[in-house]
Specification:
single chain, alpha+beta, seven-stranded mixed sheet, 5 helices, 7 strands, globular
Length: 157
């Protein structure tokens, strides 16, 4: 199966955003990392935020929520695939499809592996860093602490 020809990116409507937030994001991101839904919807209405879905036929298989910088760039706020679609190339295929929408580039925050509390968490964070590296993103060397979570910032090469 060629993922590039069978997938479509769509801007999500308010109802779809609510559904993803309530049914997917609660499993994909811990409460401390989730922006309140009302704030997401407010930013979408203000054109400061974009919620994109990845669709295969009639089935949504992934999502990306991005904060817009007003100059053609974006911060990747949330990015995940449906559990059944993980590890099958959907995430790697989705990213270039959305990256072309932002000529000034995409910045991503990735949890710092060196700040992990255990080996299992460190391994998961290393996998995420490697995923973004394969997408062509590099470590900017910038670090931040957001909601108590140490993050490294990555951007396209």
């Amino acid at each position: 199966m060629d993922l590039n020809t069978s997938l479509k990116v769509k801007t999500m409507k308010k109802g779809q955003i609510r559904k993803i937030y309530r049914q997917w994001m609660r499993w994909d991101f811990p409460p401390a990392e989730r922006r309140p839904l009302r704030r997401i919807l407010k930013f979408v209405a203000q054109k400061k935020y974009e919620c994109l879905g990845l669709w295969r036929g009639e089935k949504q298989v992934g999502y990306a929520f991005l904060a817009l910088d007003g100059r053609g760039g974006a911060l990747l706020d949330y990015y995940a695939m449906a559990p059944a679609c993980r590890g099958k190339g959907y995430g790697s295929t989705f990213f270039p499809l959305i990256a072309c929408r932002y000529p000034a580039g995409i910045l991503a925050e990735v949890e710092s592996p060196e700040k992990a509390s255990c080996n299992q968490e460190k391994a998961l964070r290393c996998r995420r860093v490697e995923f973004y590296r394969r997408l062509g993103m590099k470590d900017t060397g910038l670090r931040c602490l957001l909601y108590g979570i140490p993050l490294a910032l990555r951007n396209p090469l």
